[in-house]
Write a structure and sequence with these properties.
Strand content: 25-35%
Distance between the termini: 34 Å
Largest sheet: 6 strands, mixed
Structural class: alpha/beta
Order of helices and strands: EEEHEEHEHHHEHEHEEHEEEHEH
Number of domains: 2
Number of strands: 14
Low-confidence stretches: 26-31
CATH superfamily of the largest domain: P-loop containing nucleotide triphosphate hydrolases
CATH class of the largest domain: Alpha Beta
Helix content: 25-40%
CATH topology of the largest domain: Rossmann fold
Mean pLDDT: 88
Length: 330
């Protein structure tokens, strides 16, 4: 069973001409209404147990989509199913099986870390005994237990982000919605959050993740959907997205001693050879096959390899090309 199924999802907003936001004033009946289509007929599925990335530039429709999926915004059209349940007809049940960390979320500053978790547990109807057990376990796991009595206004940004994850996990959710979970964090705090996301995913929690950090998406996500102007323009694994947009693959070789570099051109998988100061820059069809072929050939020449490195496209490069071409990768 899919964890999430989204079918023909649409969200429009009405803006009166000359106004930035909000409803028309009763005294302005002559104003023309502009329809903004923030999410434009998108459909996708999230498999149970995967980390699904949802990427796009600012204003693409990411946050609007996640708000509809988590019950904050009502869709104009379309269906959302969470674990087989209609997300809008079963809002209470859906909230009990999902955890949500919105981009602009914050902890209750006047509460301590412990009080934040007790409060969230009470809202969701968790018994006091279970709340205490769960809070203690999460705070220890997230390295916040020693600071549990400290008011959260004194927490660092990384500590607040970890506490937000604790709050989302109080109900033992089957699905986690994370909107920019590492935004603004230092390298160490970001690594802690990524490691925790991986750990809970390995326990079977499905993760729906939005991020502007391409390294986070590349490291964590099993599949990625790219949205722009309210439409999904590409959906695939990170590796396949990179392959779709790559211009070439290359291998750089440096040798301890000199060798006849031009003979490398005759190898089957080699497209082009460019000489460098200490070796060659080789344009190839397939990285794996070419490395095997090159190493076998170099062995016959009794030459030692000093250094070997590969060049493959980064997810950021693929993302920018997909956005630029509107999903067309020919």
């Amino acid at each position: 069973m899919s964890a999430i199924i989204v079918n023909n999802l649409v969200k429009t907003f009405e803006l009166s001409k000359g106004r930035k936001r909000g409803k028309m004033s009763p005294n302005e009946p002559h104003k023309t209404m502009n329809i903004i289509r923030a999410v434009d007929d998108i459909s996708f599925e999230v498999r149970k147990g995967e980390i699904f990335g949802f990427l796009g530039p600012n204003g693409a429709g990411k946050t609007t989509t996640i708000r509809m999926m988590t019950g904050v915004l009502r869709p104009t059209k379309g269906k959302i199913k969470i674990l087989g349940l209609d997300a809008w007809k079963n809002q209470i049940v859906v909230k009990q099986v999902t955890g949500n960390v919105p981009e602009m979320a914050n902890v209750y500053f006047s509460f301590s870390g412990w009080e934040n978790l007790m409060f969230i547990g009470e809202i969701y109807g968790i018994s006091k005994k279970e709340r205490v057990i769960k809070a203690e376990s999460l705070l220890k796991k997230f390295d916040l237990y020693e600071k549990r009595t400290l008011k959260t206004k004194k927490y660092s940004k990384g500590m607040k982000q970890r506490l937000l994850l604790c709050m989302a996990l109080m109900t033992n959710p089957q699905i986690l919605f994370l909107d920019e979970p590492t935004a603004g964090l230092d390298v160490q705090s970001s690594k802690i959050i990524k490691d925790l996301i991986r750990e809970y995913n390995e326990r079977g929690v499905t993760v729906f993740l939005t991020t502007h950090d391409m390294d986070v998406a590349n490291e964590l996500c099993d599949r990625i959907a790219i949205i722009n102007h309210g439409k999904i323009i590409s959906l695939d694994t990170p590796e396949n997205l990179k392959k779709l947009t790559q211009d070439y693959q290359a291998i750089d070789l440096q040798f301890v001693d000199g060798m006849n570099k031009q003979e490398i051109k005759n190898l089957r998988n080699i497209r082009e050879v460019q000489e460098t100061q200490d070796g060659v820059h080789v344009i190839v069809e397939d990285i794996h096959e070419s490395i095997c072929e090159l190493v076998d050939y170099i062995k016959t020449q009794n030459v030692k390899i000093k250094q070997l490195s590969t060049h493959q496209p980064k997810l950021e490069e693929a993302f920018l090309k997909i956005i630029e071409k509107g999903g067309k990768t020919d």
